[in-house]
Design brief:
This protein is α+β, with helices and mostly antiparallel strands. It has helices at about 65-75, 125-135, 150-155, 185-190, 200, 255-265, 280-285, 315-320, 325-330, 360-370, 390-405, 420-425, 450-455, 475-485, 490-505; strands at about 5, 25, 45-50, 80, 90, 95-100, 105-110, 165-170, 175, 220-225, 230-235, 245-250, 270, 290-300, 340, 385-390, 410-415, 435-445, 510-520, 525, 545. The strands form 5 sheets. Strands 1, 13, 14, 15, 16, 17, 18 and 19 form an 8-stranded mixed sheet that branches. The longest helix has 18 residues, at about 490-505. The protein is globular and about 70 Å long.
Length: about 550
C-alpha cells in the first residue's frame, strides 16, 4: 500500500483469522526479543544510515520507506506481522475474535501497555487513533485502511459526530464493526498507519508530535538534529520487554558513496543503499551483504491528469515499447532486478505469468508515436523525467532517456532530493503534481494483491494515497471493489487479473520496468537480523544486539 522507494515480497497465504464469537487467546507473541547475549555490558549502539530525514513522523501520514522505518520502531498497533512468515500475530492486542459473517472484530488489549510518556494505553486510545485517521481535518494519506468500517464515510463527510463501527466495550476491550467483509482487514491493522497514539500528544494544534513522536513501541525518539542524526533510545517500559539495543543512531548521509566509505571505515553497522558495483561489494564483503525477496515493483509513472499523457494511450504505449528493460536490469541493476511485464511482482497471489505487457520494440514505439499525433516525435515537447538523487536511479533514467531519444521522444532528467521529488510527484488529492514522468518504487505494506492493485489503480486513491498517475477506469474500479469484499482468495484472483490486464495491456497506465530484490549491508557482529519480504523497514531493531568479538590482547612471547 504505501508510497515507497522500495517494495517487498509476500508469502502466499492470507493470515488465519479467529472465527466465532468467543475471544480466543493467541500463544505466539510477535517481536519477542532474543535472550540477552552473554558477556560485555558495554552500551549496545546500532548505527544505521538513512539518506535524509523521514518526511512523515505522524503515522497517519506514513507513506514512504523512510517514514515507515522510524514509525515502526516508535509505534505499535493492535497486531503485527511476523517478519519472516508474514503471519498476523498479537501486538497491543493479546487476542481477538471475528464473527462468522466477517463483520465484527473484538479485540482484547494487553494490560500494562504504556506510552513513552508513561501513561497506560486503553481502548479509548485505539478508538481515538483510528477516528483520527478518518477525520477530514487530519487529511490522512492512509484513510482507506479504515474506509470499510461501519459509519466511516458518514463521519468523514461530517454527517455523523462519531464512527458507528467503533466501540470501547471496557478499558481493555474494543469492538470494530465493518460495513462489508474485508478479508485482509487484520493485515491493514498491521500497517504503520494503524499505530496507536496518545490523544494528549496528537491533539496538539502546533503539531509538536512531528518533532517529538510518542508511541508505545520499543524505541522512543531522543535527540534529533535535522539533516545530521536522529537518536532512538530503548523504551524501558516496553510491554514486550526492553530491547537489547540501548540506542539506535540514525545518521543522515545523503550521498551513498560517502555513506559506503563511512560503513567501510567502521562508522556504521547498517548500510541501506549500495554504491558502486554490487557484484564487487558482495564479493568483497560476503559476511555483510544481505539479499532477500522483496515484494516491490519499479516503474516510471505517467501523469495521466495532464497533457501529453492524458487521453493518449498510443503515446503511453510508445514509451513502453521504446525502453529496453532487460538492459536496465542487467547493466544498471546487475541482475538484481528482473523484467516486469505488469504490476504484481512474482510471488504474489494473483501474479499472472501470461501477462506479457510490452517487449522492447523500437519500431512499434515509432508506430504508436505516429498514431499519438507525434510522428518521429515532431511536435512533442521535451518531458522532464523526475528521479530522486541516487546513483543507480540516475543511471537507469539515463538509459530510459537514451532509448526514448532513439525513437524521437525528448526527455530531460530532473534529479532532486527525496522531499522535493515527492512534492513534484504526489500533488494533492484534488490536483496533480508537477512531474509528468517520474521513477517510482512501490512496496506492499501487507501480503495481498490489493496492496498493489487497489492502491495504485483505484480512482478513489488518486494522488498521495497511491494512485499517483491519477488513473481512472470505471471497469477497473468495479473489479477492484468486487474483489475487495470477497472472502476467498480463489474468487478474488480472476477479478484482480482482469483489472491488471486492462490497466497494462489496454491503458498502458505506466512505463513498466522491473521487479526488485532487497539488498543491504550489515556488520557480521550485529545479531538477530531477521529478513522480511515486506522489506527493510520491517526488519525489527528490537530483536537485534551487538556481539563484537573480544579485542585481541598483547601478543605473548
Amino acid at each position: 500500500m504505501a508510497t515507497r522507494e522500495q517494495a517487498k515480497t509476500f508469502r502466499a497465504g492470507i493470515p488465519v483469522l479467529l472465527l466465532g464469537t468467543a475471544l480466543l487467546p493467541l500463544l505466539h507473541l510477535a517481536g519477542c526479543a532474543p535472550l540477552a547475549p552473554p558477556g560485555s555490558k558495554a552500551e549496545q549502539v546500532l548505527r544505521v544510515r538513512m539518506r535524509e530525514d523521514p518526511p512523515d513522523t505522524d503515522p497517519a501520514q506514513s507513506a514512504d520507506t523512510l517514514s515507515d522505518r522510524l514509525n515502526l520502531e516508535v509505534h505499535d498497533g493492535l497486531v503485527d506481522f511476523e517478519p519472516e512468515t508474514l503471519e498476523i500475530v498479537p501486538a497491543v492486542a493479546a487476542a481477538w475474535a471475528l464473527t462468522t459473517d466477517g463483520l465484527e472484530y473484538t479485540f482484547q488489549l494487553r494490560p500494562g501497555v504504556r506510552f513513552h510518556n508513561g501513561r497506560a494505553l486503553t481502548s479509548d486510545d485505539v478508538l481515538y487513533s483510528f477516528t483520527r485517521i478518518l477525520d477530514p481535518r487530519v487529511n490522512s494519506k492512509r484513510r482507506e485502511i479504515l474506509a470499510e468500517v461501519k459509519g466511516a464515510e458518514e463521519f468523514s463527510a461530517g454527517k455523523s459526530p462519531r464512527v458507528e463501527g467503533f466501540e470501547a466495550v471496557d478499558p481493555l476491550t474494543l469492538r470494530i464493526t465493518l460495513a462489508k467483509p474485508l478479508p485482509y482487514f487484520l493485515q491493514l491493522l498491521a500497517t504503520p498507519a494503524a499505530a496507536i497514539v496518545p490523544k494528549e500528544i496528537y491533539d496538539d494544534p502546533r503539531k509538536g508530535y512531528l518533532a517529538h513522536p510518542v508511541g508505545c513501541g520499543p524505541f522512543q525518539v531522543g535527540r534529533w538534529v535535522r539533516s545530521s542524526f536522529l537518536e532512538l533510545s530503548a523504551f524501558d517500559g516496553y510491554y514486550r520487554g526492553r530491547p537489547k539495543l540501548d540506542r539506535v543512531l540514525i545518521r543522515f548521509i545523503e550521498n551513498p558513496a560517502s555513506a559506503m566509505e563511512e560503513y567501510k571505515a567502521g562508522g556504521l553497522e547498517w548500510m541501506d543503499e549500495l554504491a558502486g558495483s554490487e557484484t564487487q561489494i558482495a564479493r568483497d564483503l560476503p559476511g555483510d551483504y544481505r539479499k532477500g525477496p522483496y515484494l516491490a515493483t519499479h516503474y516510471y509513472g505517467l501523469n495521466l491528469a495532464r497533457k501529453p499523457f492524458q487521453g493518449n494511450v498510443d503515446l503511453r504505449k510508445a514509451f513502453n515499447y521504446a525502453v529496453d528493460r532487460k538492459a536496465i536490469c542487467d547493466q544498471v541493476f546487475e541482475g538484481n532486478h528482473t523484467v516486469s511485464h505488469g504490476i504484481l511482482p512474482p510471488g504474489t497471489q494473483g501474479f499472472n505469468p501470461d501477462l506479457r505487457g510490452y517487449d522492447y520494440d523500437p519500431e512499434k514505439a515509432r508506430q504508436h508515436l505516429a498514431k499519438a499525433g507525434y510522428p518521429g516525435g515532431k511536435g512533442l515537447p521535451s518531458i522532464d523525467l523526475w528521479v530522486n538523487n541516487n546513483q543507480k536511479l540516475v543511471q537507469a533514467a539515463q538509459k530510459v532517456q537514451a532509448d526514448l531519444k532513439a525513437v524521437g521522444i525528448p526527455v530531460r532528467i530532473q534529479a532532486v532530493d527525496f522531499a522535493n521529488f515527492l512534492q513534484a510527484v504526489l500533488g494533492t488529492g484534488e490536483a496533480p503534481g508537477e512531474a509528468l514522468l517520474y521513477k517510482f518504487g512501490w512496496q506492499a505494506d501487507y501480503p495481498d494483491p490489493a496492496a498493489f492493485l487497489y492502491w495504485l489503480l483505484h480512482s478513489r486513491n488518486a494522488g498521495p494515497a497511491g494512485n499517483m498517475s491519477r488513473y481512472s477506469n470505471g471497469k477497473v474500479d468495479e473489479l477492484l471493489d468486487r474483489a475487495q469484499n470477497l472472502v476467498r482468495i480463489e474468487d478474488r484472483i480472476p477479478l484482480y487479473r482482469e483489472a491488471e490486464r486492462i490497466a497494462v495491456e489496454e491503458d498502458a497506465v505506466w512505463l513498466f520496468v522491473s521487479n526488485m530484490t532487497e539488498r543491504f549491508l550489515v556488520k557480521p557482529y550485529v545479531k538477530g537480523v531477521v529478513l522480511s519480504s515486506l522489506g527493510m523497514s520491517r526488519i525489527p531493531f528490537d530483536r537485534m544486539w551487538i556481539e563484537k568479538p573480544p579485542a585481541a590482547g598483547p601478543e605473548k612471547r
